[in-house]
TrEMBL record:
SUPFAM superfamilies: Metalloproteases ('zincins'), catalytic domain. It is found in: Mitochondrion. CDD domains: M3A_MIP. It comes from Sesamum alatum. This is Mitochondrial intermediate peptidase, mitochondrial.
């Protein structure tokens, strides 16, 4: 999911563009300009800059059609339009015009709100400001990630920077805050959703520091800039310093890895000094392998040479070293910010308005999960160890961290008789898109029709556009699909909510528009075949898309995925189940040559392979979440460094060794983007397991079940409390109250993974 919490001073998540879930990318070279924006904003507002996260708080990218921004999405037969259907974007320079119009309309709304209209008009007008601002920023972000034309990318970047400057004026405007206070006081004039919007707007403004003294606000703003710099530096270091290993001789690298390697040479140890030249027989040939995460994963799975795996593991988990210092500074800045805001730690600040509500609640949940998964994870560890010893004949050989991917892949393939090249033959990209259509129609009675794109609307010939049409309700929204990889395209799989839904009048509703972006490889669209893990990813992102497309909230502030962080991943995790269910797969997974449906036995083998080491993977996710919590509750006076904290947690919560000298967490980008919020993935895993078992497992394509999912869950977006939504959908078996917060019930997940043992 792609996040559109786009305020450049957002300290909760730093620079927020991922990953689902998304982050605004502002280069270090622009930070001086951003500091100048602070000064200009003081001139605009006569005071310190305040973060108005509320106005664009959405945790999923969204832009909407403001009154002055013409959109042609509902007119598919338009012959000529601009990018995403915006007439301004017929050329790259049109982004600047979009900014002009967005600022003009927002200024009109700010003036109107300052006149203190009625409570409903205040909320409606602030929601339109959000809608207007997000239109330009989020269309620019989608463009930056996907457009092949460099001019469009550059103009989109300029537009984002310019509008971010304007946001400082909004962030520091006390009239908006006072208006929200008035609206909340006159709650009798508001609907239930309107009152919830007023409360959320006020809380978000206060979390930005609008209530602080000028001196404290100045320091908060300085810290925001510092945090932005550090977040950006952390991510840049990951990209620029992926590490590499040089392997000699070349024969140590299997052919399956050659496409990832660069050929290198070194003088042969037995060569004559008189022989020169790269083609000399006295030059030894080798391979250089970059240890960025995807390549490292392939090396660890496919390299039979244990020393090669070790070299790659150690190197890949020891870069970028510069991020050790960057992370220390980031954690210190976040802690100082939180103290100014009146909190004991950054985790306490970040979690206050989530379902969990506090670090104590999150830690109790994570420790419960760790305890539940430990016995089976230890069993799996022993199985891997025994297999390794059986393969090597060394009865006292230890299991090393670089052994896990290699031996688990061998064990899965052997036990389940899996040939992964056969699996992909059933998942051509066109057939997988048919699978999405099957889900939408079977569950929700919605047909996905491919519709023509207007001239100039698309950014690449591979892009498709679907309309979601209900026979009784008409068009429900529009979905762009940009699923194939290409040169220059950002390597992400994400859902971009281009346009959030909102009620315009008693009879008119602004339809949502979303883009689903992936990077599946193939020479042309029809030739793309997906690994089964890619199918799961596609269905995950489609879950986000359906959340956006099927929600029907009065305010775009709550549209679709605009919910608290520890609830946002639930629909996407739920739809992953469909990628594993034979009753669903047989309807679209057809062999590319014969057209035969995927055999049930093959699906069972895939499930068997998935379940073989599921506890180990779950334990790893718990470990990651514990790292995130520990680092964001750490006090500056602590004598332990981040490396020691990570090492101790690994020893305490897993069976795997910590390798001295490594610091894997220095490229754990979620520490930047989801600071103190990584546990949300585990919340979603528990919620979705309960929903699947209680509502969908018996008949996953049941229209009755789909109706319940839509009417009781998806249509509400963030307009209802997530606890109310969950209890209404599946009863009181899905959540538990604990120490003032809400945690998921873990029973369904534990049963699914067979983690409970009878005494």
């Amino acid at each position: 999911m792609y996040s559109s919490r786009l305020l450049i001073l957002s300290v909760q998540n730093g620079v927020l563009i991922d990953f689902s879930y998304f982050r605004t990318q502002i280069t270090l070279s622009t930070l001086k300009s951003l500091q100048q924006c602070l000064e200009r904003a003081r001139d605009f507002a006569g005071g310190s800059v305040i973060m108005l996260r509320a106005l664009i708080r959405a945790p999923a990218a969204s832009f909407s059609c403001a009154r002055r921004l013409l959109h042609s999405a509902t007119a598919p037969l338009v012959k000529e339009t601009g990018l995403y259907g915006f007439d301004h974007l017929k050329t790259a320079k049109g982004f600047q015009r979009m900014v002009d119009d967005a600022i003009e309309r927002s200024n009109e709304l700010v003036d109107y709100i300052a006149g203190m209209p009625s409570a409903p008009e205040i909320i409606k007008s602030m929601d339109e400001i959000s809608d207007t601002v997000c239109t330009t920023i989020d269309s620019a972000e989608l463009c930056r990630h996907t457009h092949p034309d460099r001019e469009f990318v550059e103009e989109a970047s300029k537009a984002s920077l310019r509008l971010n400057e304007y946001l400082h004026f909004l962030n520091s405007n006390p009239s908006l805050y006072h208006a929200i206070l008035k609206a909340e006081q006159n709650h009798h004039m508001l609907t239930e959703e309107g009152l919830r919007a007023a409360r959320h707007l006020r809380i978000d403004l206060e979390k930005g520091g609008i209530h602080l003294s000028p001196e404290k606000l100045d320091r908060v703003n300085q810290l925001n800039i510092e945090i932005l710099q550090l977040c950006r530096q952390f991510n840049e270091n990951i990209i620029t310093d992926p590490g590499h290993v040089d392997i000699f001789p070349a024969s140590r690298i299997p052919k399956k890895l050659h496409h990832l390697a660069k050929t290198i040479h070194r003088p042969s140890s037995f060569g004559s000094k008189r022989s020169t030249g790269p083609d000399s027989n006295l030059k030894e040939r080798g391979f250089r392998l970059v240890t960025e995460p995807n390549t490292l994963c392939s090396i660890l799975q496919l390299a039979s040479d244990a020393e090669v795996r070790k070299m790659a593991y150690v190197r890949g988990n020891s870069v970028p070293r510069a991020n050790l210092v960057v992370l220390d500074k980031l954690l210190a800045a976040r802690h100082e910010f939180s103290e100014i805001m009146g909190y004991k730690s950054y985790a306490e600040f970040a979690l206050k308005d989530n379902m969990a509500s506090s670090p104590e609640v999150v830690l109790s949940f994570l420790h419960e999960m760790s305890k539940m998964v430990r016995p089976k994870a230890e069993e799996e560890f022993k199985k891997i160890l025994d297999f390794k010893r059986g393969e090597s004949g060394q009865l006292f050989e230890d299991l090393e961290p670089w052994d896990e991917p290699y031996f688990t892949r061998m064990m899965k393939s052997s036990a389940q008789n899996l040939d992964y090249s056969v699996v992909v033959s059933y998942f051509s990209l066109p057939q997988c898109i048919e699978g999405l259509k099957v889900l939408a129609e079977s569950l929700f009675g919605v047909k996905c029709h491919e519709i023509p794109l207007g001239h100039g609307e698309s950014w690449h010939p591979d892009v498709l556009k679907l309309s979601l049409h209900h026979p009784d309700e008409g068009d429900l929204g529009y979905l762009y699909l940009d699923l194939k990889s290409r040169k220059g395209k950002h390597p992400i799989c994400a859902h971009f909510a281009i346009k959030g839904g909102r009620r315009l009048s008693e009879t008119d509703y602004q339809l949502p528009i979303v883009a689903l972006v992936c990077n599946f490889s193939g020479s042309n669209f029809a030739s793309v075949h997906l690994h089964h893990s890619d199918v799961e990813t596609l269905f995950h992102e489609f879950g986000h898309a359906l959340h956006s497309l099927l929600s029907r909230t009065d305010y775009q502030h709550f549209s679709g995925t605009r919910v608290v962080l520890d609830f946002a991943e639930t629909p996407s995790n739920l739809f992953e189940y469909y990628a594993w269910d034979y009753r669903v797969l047989r309807k679209f997974a057809k062999h590319s040559s014969t057209g035969d449906p995927i055999p049930e036995k093959l699906v069972q083998s895939l499930l068997g392979a998935k379940n073989m080491f599921a506890a180990t993977e779950l334990q790893r996710q718990v470990f990651y979440a514990l790292i995130d919590q520990a680092l964001h509750t750490m006090q500056p006076s602590s004598v332990k460094d981040t490396v020691s904290i990570v090492a101790d947690l690994k020893r305490e919560h897993t069976s795997w060794k910590y390798v001295e000298g490594t610091h894997w967490h220095t490229r754990f980008s979620h520490l930047v983007t989801y600071g103190a919020g990584y546990y949300s993935y585990l919340y979603a895993k528990c919620f979705s397991a309960t929903i699947w078992q209680k509502i969908l497992q018996q008949d996953p394509l049941s229209p009755a079940a789909g109706s319940a999912i839509r009417s009781k869950f998806l249509q509400h977006g963030g307009a209802k409390d997530p606890t109310v939504i969950l209890n209404d959908l599946v009863g009181n078996c899905v959540v538990r109250k604990q120490n003032g917060g809400i945690i998921p019930d873990i029973t369904s997940l534990g049963e699914e993974m067979q983690l409970f043992y009878s005494s």
